[in-house]
Amino acid sequence: MSKRLIMIHDENKCIGCQACNIACRSENGTPDEVTRLQVRVEGPFGDAPNLHFKYNRVSCQQCEDAPCVKVCPTGAAYVGEDGLVSIKAEKCVGCMYCVAACPYKVRFMNPETKVADKCNFCKETRLAKGELPACVTACPTDALIFGDANDPSSEVVKILNTKPSYQDKTHLGTKPRLYRIPTKRGGSSHEQYLGRYGAI
Amino acid sequence: MIKLDRRNFIKGAGAGGASCALATMLPGTLAALESAPLKGVGKEVASICEMCSTRCPISARVVNGKNVFITGNKAAKPFGGKVCARGGAGHSLLYDPQRIVSPLKRVGERGEGKWAEISWDEAYQTIAKKLNEIKRDHGAESVAFSSKSGSLSGHLFHLGKAFGSPNHFTHASTCPGGYVVAAKAMFGTKVKRDLGNSKYIINFGHNLYEGINMSETRAMMDAQMEKGTKLVVFEPRFSIVADKADEWFAIKPGTDVSVALALCHVLIEDGLYDKEFIERYVEGFDEFAKEVKAYTPEWAAAISDVPAADIRRIAHEYASHAPHAVVDFGHRATFTTEEFDMRRALFAANVLIGNIERKGGLYLGKKAKTYNKFAGETVAPILGKPGVEGMPKPTAKRIDQVDEQYAMMWSSGGIYQTILDATLEAKPYQLKAWVMSRTNPMQTMTDRARVVETLKKLDLVVCCDVYISETAAYADIILPESTYLERDEEIADKSGKNPAYYVRQRVVETIGQTKPSWQIFKELGEQMGLGQFFPWQSMETLQMLQLNRDTSELRRIKEQGYVSYGKPLMLREPEMVSAFAQTYSNAKPVDEDGTYGSQLKFKTPSGKIELSSKKVEGMAPGRGVIKYREVDLKQDDELYFIQGKVAIHTNGATHNVPMLANLMSDNAIWVHPLTAGKLGISAGDAIRITSSVGSEEGTALVTPGIRQDTVFAYMGFGSKNKELVRATGKGVHCGNLLPHKTAPVCGMNIHTTGVKLAKI
Questions:
Q1: Contacts of residue A145 in chain B, CB cutoff 8 Å?
Q2: Pairs of residues, one from chain A and one from chain B, whose beta carbons lie less than 8 Å apart
């Protein structure tokens, strides 16, 4: 069976320290003005002393039904055999349709290459060498878990089977492959988050 | 082979147009080099980080011939092979065009920002001539030497000692000194915490999720998430650690000691303390118990705003998990003049439940010497020292040696801020020169204006650094140190429950004319005519000396980067002791109760834990017994001003590192919505913050995550020298707002004061 590579962001373990952001920039040479990945510490929400922060990973969701791929006129944005939403630089004409189409606002034009860019789970820089994505490798508190959701013995499957999780903007039918474990504090219903972040 | 031309450097740094132009014009910076071909020494090199003072084990890699990807060293299990944002950004410092790569001399007024590149020879000759003149005319003691702690400080202090000055300082009195001295007074030595095995953690603003200490941060998160450990946080601000806590109490700034003492009160009055432990290991319990009788939770509630019922309940919950529970004794809580007794009270709450040398409690570090003695064999090599003969003995007293009460601090880094008193007021005598390495008192000491005055008054100021820091901006000579990614250094001790060593190794070849500090201070010493005190030729010689010429062990440590010996040992933990005794056939005999409890001794005058101390009473009359004293931190119409750490920066050091500056270059001032409303301040407004000594402009961050009577800002921002292009003028300079004040006994530089806010 083919692989279904997914990432889980455990918002309970995330401390918003930006180690992932720096590791990503270092490995992928992302220019300063743009970012493939950041964790926004939002809030605090609630009434004191019952406050809580929201740790919001902002990066490509690796949609299984990706709007950016659908709108790309040249086939530069494509889904590879590995299932990952990727970009063929030589085919990109810089029309920015994909940037506009992304419901998660995580695609951008790379100011150095002039090609559309985004997180690709470190497909070339690390996965090809059998390494984990840079952000997962660096994360100080093990808040990021990466693996094959089609492998029942994988850690990601174990976690999805035992912990509550949600995905962002699922109503759009994009089938994101970034799963999030909501924080226990301040109510655990993910609808609350989705409501707050404009999805419903 | 790395090829980096000037254009790529500048592009990589991504500094804004105008500021970039200024940076490229600065003489002696990396940008001024026309080309700098670099070579990676190896593909993957194990080393030690230096982006903060935790110094985590790292593994650095040269990628595509251009960059270095840095992650944690997987061989160091407690650190999990992980690295924080600062650690991961080390290569950004390495290739920063604004780094200084040539010795510089001042050609304008001090602080004016006019520099000329000079040769190492000229730098050494200028410094040596001046220092020797000062020594001849005023005595060696009129020169102060200061450095951040770690392997670097040893070489500068060695030079200072060879020169004959007793005045060496670390940054301790501006940072961890309080709990270090409190631990010395009570346990005779520093102690460590076993957060990972703790079942209940009480935390007073030790923000491990922002001031990241990789092994402890990971241990605490693991305990919380995987073991169900409860975390209670007392902190005036809703920090990340407060967010992750099971319970957060917005304690009134400076009142931590009252809650700690009330916890002790409940433990004693409700009979929850470990009587057997107290009887066997503790001195001065009765005096402490008598004093604590008055410190009821109701009393503490009136002072701290923490409800009495909660204090009582938390004390009971904590005791129910004894001895596998801990009250975290540091790092930062609100600094007050009662820092010493606040830290002792936190330690006392641990001692009362007998968590010493128990899982999840506190323990003493097990270095090779101790560990080998228990094992009855050489499990870990004991590191040798070069042992230089005939080092001069300074005749003068240290400048901070004016008052006996500070005696315990003299050997723990000294009272750093006394350099200001000695320079400006000749107290106790006149200082004439200041030689410093990788320290930035302009940011970390209080009353910036006074630091400036001090630097202007001295006859000679020398700074060794990687940037023209806010302090280096006032130097006469700047010595460019290689970054940690270009340096080899001594093997360092990283022992915890068992011995461990690790080593810093160069990852890329040296850029520009920079040198490692051990070489700089050796060469300067030679120029000063002190060559006899620096008999070693290279770092390799020193490393060989450390390992008694055991080349295979040296190779092993270098290859793995981090080597741990034996298995964890806590003397009062039967399981660990039994496993230890089974491993080593000549191990010390185990006590009847299956522990090494009879071997647990403390380096205090009584050999016991001194809950109350006659020694302290002798040093500082009236302070032998831990006591509550009211502190005066602000005027009635002022707000408390407190600071803290952020995960992206290290207080006085990283604000100009390109990747980190790009992530965060400003520190907005946290203000409660009601306070902001009263002052007509809205989110994002430009505001003025004024204290008794200074005034700063900043931006308001209106948030419920702070008490109404308090404002907060992250430390280290708002640099005022133009050379730190990315950091200058951005945010609030905390040191400029804090008055010069020193805490009794521990000599801590107080970082809390009163301020007023106004919309600009």
A1: none
A2: 112
pLDDT in tens, chain A (200 residues): 589 999 999 999 999 999 999 999 999 999 999 999 999 999 999 988 899 999 999 999 999 999 999 999 999 999 999 999 999 999 999 999 999 999 999 999 999 999 999 999 999 999 999 999 999 999 999 999 999 999 999 999 999 999 999 999 999 999 999 999 999 875 444 444 444 444 33
Say yes or no to pLDDT of B4 above 60.
Answer: no
- Contacts with B658 from chain A: Cβ below 8 Å: 32
Q: What is the CA radius of gyration of chain A?
A: 17
Distance from CA of A23 to the nearest CA of B (A): 6
Q: For residue A115, give Cα distances in angstroms to A67, A76, A107, A120.
A: 18, 10, 10, 14
Nearest CA to CA, how far is B79 from chain A (Å)? 8
Provide the 3-class DSSP secondary structure of residue B62.
strand
> What's the rounded Cα separation, in Å, for the pair B582 and B594?
12
pLDDT, tens digit, 9 for 90 and up, residues A38-76: 999 999 999 888 999 999 999 999 999 999 999 999 999
- Contact assessment for residue B273 and residue B325, using Cβ atoms and an 8 Å cutoff: no
With contact defined as beta carbons under 8 Å apart, do B252 and B235 qualify? no
Q: What angle do CA B128, B134, B138 make, to 5 degrees?
A: 155
Q: Kindly list the residues from chain B whose CB atom is less than 8 angstroms away from the CB atom of residue A185.
A: 243
Q: Please, are residues B225 and A11 in contact by the beta-carbon 8 Å criterion?
A: no
Query: Tens digits of per-residue pLDDT, B700-754?
Result: 999 999 999 999 999 999 999 999 999 999 999 999 999 999 999 999 999 999 9
Q: With an 8 Å Cβ cutoff, are A12 and B647 in contact?
A: no
Amino acid at B533: F
* Complex prediction ipTM: 0.94
Contact criterion met (CB < 8 Å) for B243 and A51: yes
Strand ranges, E, within B179-297: 192-193, 200-203, 230-234, 247-249, 282-283
Interatomic CA distance for residues B78 and B591, integer angstroms: 30
Q: How many CB atoms lie within 10 A of CB B558?
A: 18
Tokens of A17: 């320290």
Torsion-angle region of B16 (φ positive above 0: left; ψ -120 to 50: alpha; else: beta): beta
CA atoms within 13 A on the CB side of B535: 10
Residue whose token pair is 């944005």: A77
Contact flag B63-A22 (C-beta cutoff 8 Å): no
Distance CA B698, CA B730 (A): 8
Decide: B38 and B60 in contact? Cβ < 8 Å: no
Residues 125-184 of A with CB under 8 A from B: 134, 137-142
| CB spacing of B209 vs A13 below 8 angstroms | no
Cβ-defined contact of B243 to A140 (cutoff 8 Å): no
Q: Report chain B's C-alpha Rg in angstroms.
A: 26
Query: Within 13 Å and on the Cβ side, how many CA atoms surround B357?
Result: 25
- Residue B214 and residue B235 in contact, taking contact as beta carbons nearer than 8 Å: no
A47 touches chain B (CB under 8 A): yes
Predicted TM-score (pTM) of this structure: 0.95
The distance in angstroms from the start CA to the end CA of chain B is: 53
10 Å CB burial of residue B593 (0-12, 13-18, 19+) is exposed
